[in-house]
Fold each of these.
Amino acid sequence: MRNVLMLAAFLAAGPGWAETDIFNLTAAERAAFRAEVRALLLVEPQIVDRALNPPNPAAQEIRQEIDDDLRLLQALAPEILGGRQIALFIGADCAECARAADELEAVSKDYGAEFILHDTRDPASAALADRLGMTDLPFYVLPGMILRGHIPAVVLPRYLD
């Protein structure tokens, strides 16, 4: 913003610029203007970056939430994954949970992957799900990622490699 104000002040203060209609420049005035703008941009190229990428508070807030979630996952990884590649959270009153557990067990055998099963009927597993803010079962946890819902057996190998 400071640079824009500097440019505006320059344009207003320069010889002859005060009386010049900025939208109706002569060829010589256009050339002089281009030269001054070029010189300014060479000295302070960040002006272009700020103009093309203005601050986006919503994107910054989302990025902060993502970073917070990733830090939480990293902090809880020893408890959730216990050194394994994937964790599955299941619980009572979950129609897809048994199927998800069976498919993960079969796929993990085929791919030599280790998984850990967290049943939210166990208070410790329920507390982990709560800390993650997850209420819908089943869900999977991998390093740096949570996958909501039942993941079909044909898709699971993609996450185990």
Amino acid sequence: MSDMNILNKCMLCPRKCGADRLSGEKGFCRAGAEIKIARADLHMWEEPPISGSKGSGTVFFSGCNLQCCFCQNHEISAEGKGFELTAKELADTFLMLQDKGAHNINLVTAAPYVPQIIEALDIAGDRLNIPIVYNSGGYESLETLEMLRGKVDIFLPDLKYYSDKLSADYSGANDYFGRATRALIKMHELVGQPEFDENSIMKRGVIVRHLVLPGCRHDSAKIVGWLADNFAPQELLISLMSQYTPMYKAKDIKALSRRTSTFEYEYVCRLVENCGFDGFFQQRSSAEDKYVPEFFDKKYY
């Protein structure tokens, strides 16, 4: 069982804001003491070994320790949409998704709620027997990741930026690359290299996601280079995303007010292929806002 007292001076993420969440204070991520989610359902739009044929049992948590100006999920990451659950209700939600046929339980932007999630997983216990996916923006504390040892089977982190200036300008985190790369190394230590079942559904491992942003292909190239220098091709998978669409505040930022070009995306794809990594490339048609799920402010299931 997780110790909830950690929330009285919250240090769960690299911002270490020290918010007393148990007394009603909220930190940078906008999370309080209660679990808050905005959606729990089967999700078909993750990578093939995550969504498979039946879907990933995805739980979207409210709040975020990054404030990306182009966030597709800004309704929940920045604007606080969602509804509260107890740890017991979250455990029941996990079991409900498993009963619906989910290949896994997919925890999206869960860092502010790690202690409560551990409590919910403990409540579910052996009744929950599908992999747990930690789906993250990559800006993680090593101490919080260590809390997930033996609880999480698959890590699905972003590696968004190499440049500290880009991460400061676009996500409000000028230490992003250093934090995210150390976190990625820790994630790999916790779960090892990719493993799959007989239906090619992932059981363990790490998939690193990178979204190619307009005008940032050289930054993307540095990220691919870092991955090649620090991991052997068989140690992780890379998911290279082309889905960038100007949304939220990005519509008003000139450099981000267009879609990523085919040239930019294919340039980075070639670099990934040349480094020998396996992974996933997106269809250009995925860059549409229709793929953003509906979020709720009242429990609907």
Amino acid sequence: MKKKAAILLTLLTGIFGLIAFQFSTKERPPNVVLIYIDDMGFGDLGRTGAIDYQTPNFDDMAAKGLFFSNYYTPQAVCSASRAGLLTGCYPNRVGFSGATDHTAKTGINADEETIAELLKTKGYATAAFGKWHLGFQKEFLPVNHGFDLFFGIPYSNDMWPNHPVNKNYYPPLPLIEQDKVVGTNPDQRQFTTWFTERTIQFIKDNKRKPFFAYLAHPMPHVPLFVSDKFKGKSKQGLYGDVLMELDWSIGEIRKTLREQGLDKNTLLIVTSDNGPWLTYGDHAGSAGGFREGKGTTFEGGHRVPCLMEWPGVIPAGAVCNSMVAGMDILPTIAEATGATLPVKKIDGVSLLANLKGKLDAQPRQTFLYYYRKNSLQAVRHDNWKLVFAHPGRTNEGFLPGKGGMPGKANENFNHQGGLYDLRRDPGERYNVEKEFPEVVAALTKIADEAREDLGDDLTQKTGANRRAVGRVNE
């Protein structure tokens, strides 16, 4: 009799504990999982036209959540994009441009407030796994910018001795735990698995308190690697295999949230840092019909998939075609969690109204396309995009590479300016500036205001409100 009573007591304790846990998760602010994928193009998902491989978990997330069809990465290159995402600012406002490497003496400034630092003030556990790329010296690493944990690589996975072109330029690729190097030239076939498993363990370890997990996958940036469990699974080849494994990662994260009873109190965000690196041909993704790709301010460089899921808050199967940007992630998270916005000026706007079902809300009206050190190459307002004449990359007219070797591209092509109606011409093929001089004038005024604020190398404007990047203390 005593044994039966003990069993009954154990069962009741478990049931009441589960009820109490579920009640507590509803009372506390939402968890946030932010997944940033490297070089994934707009056309790389099943729902956006991928061919010869499937992405069932990405697609199911979209079916049960929200897909932003007009999402812009802050800048079409690695470091700058991440600076914009984590600070809510145009990258050039906080001193970032391009992609830093092992020779850089710069990184994220200690005075800038990251998403992690905002959430720490609300009692969140925070972690970053995967690729960082905001400075590799200790003072720039995630654990000094709001993250309790870090396990990953300090910059891009091609910055190692096996680079296909610059073989003698890069040192061994470091693998870092917290702020210590724990290995060099790690097995990149395990990257997607390792960083997914670390994220899952972090979620499980912190399920009884609010948490923020930032999973920045190094793939499908070249060089491409995939674990044995997905090797040869795609009819498209290695690139398809890699996307299938990333899709697996999304599925594992979502499954963990459900199994831990956390999914209804977790905002899950998945997006990409920039468009596909088209120079690499069969080792690159698809821009989905947009013009050009990574490293350009045409739509193929900036327009990437963005999916968000939050059961009970975000309506299932929603598509929002309002213009949004990577800088908007920080203020969205801040409003959703009750965190205070950074003291210094940011450029993002909250998308919480969109998340709650107001799909026609347009908190963002304008986007500035900056590239290179500080060149304002284009500006968008509503559905109009005005491109200014500028030197820049073009892949057009060049055969792409294959097998991991890059093809040729013109890195200093003189692009002509033009006005494009993105509603009718998302491929930016038809210049209509002569037909709409009033639109050109209106967008030029917006550009002039931006130049006063942020500067513009193309017109020799310094800008009044740019802030210094962090620098190594020498």
Amino acid sequence: MGFNKDFLWGGATAANQFEGAYNEDGRGLANVDIIPIGELRRPMMRGQINKTDFIEGYHYPAKEGIDFYHRYKEDIALIAEMGFKAFRLSIAWSRIFPKGDEEAPNEKGLQFYEDVFKECQKYGMEPIVTITHFDIPIHLVEAYGGWRNRKILGFYENHARALFTRYKGLVKYWITFNEINMLFDNPFMSAGIILTEEELEDDHKRRETLYQAAHHQLVASAIAVKTAREVDKEIKVGAMIAATTTYPDTPNPDDVWAAHLLERTGFFLVDVQVRGEYPGYAKKEFERNNFNLHITEEDLKLLKENTVDYLSFSYYLTLVKSADESRTDAKQGNVLTSHPNKYLEKTDWGWNIDPKGFRITLNRLYDRYNIPLFVVENGLGAYDTLDENGMVQDDYRIDFLAKHIEQMKLAVEVDGVDLLGYTTWGCIDLVSAGSGEMAKRYGFIYVDRDNDGNGTLERKKKKSFNWYKKVIESNGEDVSNT
């Protein structure tokens, strides 16, 4: 017995990486719009540059993305041709509330997503919708300091209620925050936080600020769950984490402990969203460092009574951790750094390729939380080139995904993991969140666009297009490359 007959196969995207039309139909400016490609990208994502507008001479790929805003019917028809059962996308907050603090939403923004969801419905696709995918109106950054400010809770609640109400009957599965644990590494991208000079110089102060912002997002997530249940009891609201497994470099207990600590930093926010309270290790961290956090009894009550219905996550790689802090061989993979793993191959961007680690991660999450899981991001970022026939022969992507799907099937069939669905990341080529590149391609559909914003935006099916269609048709039974 493999996957359930109603298993949700599909693909995933994010508004700021593929929608474009950043200043059309009343949409306001967002934090992700002003993060350029190039040397400023990482410092801006990390909140190290105090800038809230475009800088002359830089290219901003989110402005146009791949123009899904004007091409959504064409794109949805293409992914429907693959047989998608689900399509994960996100809401651009500033398209609904251009400044973020208005009382009434922007009707043109609401109508756009209604049209998109109805188009999905036409093809029998379930929208999986992220309320906030690295996205906050720039006005909330400038006027309130982003998620460091408790006032954002009310604006988020207003936003969530508008979405749940307008799209009742159109959207069943919601996600409150994309990769909520990325806030600590990329505070501007994840939470609209520009660090002050004091926070940049004082690590204690910086961590205190980020823990407070994280608490605000946790409370906002609980408020969204509460609001959803008030509006429509059929709605399912999930958390979302950037998940991985961290291996100790050796069996040395010091390495095992170092790996455990690193892995746990990714769990603690989801511990709260799933279990309804801060874990003991987090409370001790706050106490030991004397962090001055504003956490009310009402907050704790909200967290306890409004836990999520399912846990969604991204999985791309595994990490290796050594306790030896003098080592200099750790390299960045995704956001976190990893020591070498001689047993694994790497992607074009140096990320460890670990299909069995996928099964391990699925088991660890399910053992820890025992609620339904949903894989909402998995995929291979690679350099794709068109051959003389205008086709991308992406056998490397097929091989990557096939091996991961095989391990996912074992997690379900052999290990008993309760899994709702699987949506590959960037099912249609889009802008990379980490690097801002178009050259880092994940899709089954090629988009004619380069890193400088040149190209016709023409869509072309890759070899993997028909392969994934076959995988879905067989409900994951046939992953062969034939």
